[in-house]
Amino acid sequence: KQEVTQIPAALSVPEGENLVLNCSFTDSAIYNLQWFRQDPGKGLTSLLLIQSSQREQTSGRLNASLDKSSGRSTLYIAASQPGDSATYLCLPFGNEKLTFGTGTRLTIIP
Amino acid sequence: DAGITQSPRHKVTETGTPVTLRCHQTENHRYMYWYRQDPGHGLRLIHYSYGVKDTDKGEVSDGYSVSRSKTEDFLLTLESATSSQTSVYFCAIQVTQGGNTGELFFGEGSRLTVL
């Protein structure tokens, strides 16, 4: 059974800082990994999808990397803004029973 | 949003009553999922479907059943609702790209309160 861990569970940083969110998974036999954000009371918004043939994917200020052999993915956020405050979730795609991490709650302090 | 609609968006019901939540997609994606989200537990998979009449259980399937009689609709039924099933329910579809399963997209959620 896939187990997904996201550390830290919560993070507060001043506006403008660069930051890294971590995702670890136990089953490295995955074919994709997706990062989401979730605002309070809202659904999940897809941020980035990394396919197994890729090592990283970029979208604007976001950069996600994937190291299947070590069971790790990181989400790098550059020049953080208050609007980045949300919960960030990762989802490794290893089989049909897709298991989420518990998320990192990010707060950007103006 | 990949054309996903959940209904109802909010529902309050009493213990012991049946409840059905509907997930509708406007495209013809094969994979559909139902999750519940609770404080302290994150998102947990209830059931998923990989085609019409093809469904399987997730990690928290007890007390829930699903049906998929046509591609666009995936129904989640609580046969006899209990207070422990008070939660926010999310439906998701997985977009197929070039024959490979790809990105997951979520609906806006259905908030269920069981009194």
Write up this protein.
The complex is a heterodimer of chains A (110) and B (115). Chain A has strands spanning 4-7, 10-14, 19-25, 32-38, 44-51, 56-59, 62-67, 72-77, 86-93, 104-109. In chain A, the strands form 2 sheets. A 5-stranded antiparallel β-sheet of chain A has the order 1-3-8-7-6, with no helix packed on it. Chain A has a 5-stranded mixed β-sheet with strand order 2-10-9-4-5, with no helix packed on it. Chain A has 110 residues and is mostly beta strands. In chain A, strand 7 and strand 8 (72-77) form a beta hairpin. Chain A is built from no helices and 10 strands. Chain B is mainly beta and 115 residues long. Helices cover 0% and strands 63% of the residues of chain B. Chain B has no helices and 11 strands. In chain B, strands 2, 4, 5, 6, 9, 10 and 11 form a 7-stranded mixed β-sheet that branches. The radius of gyration of chain B is 14 Å and the shape is globular. The mean pLDDT of chain B is 93.
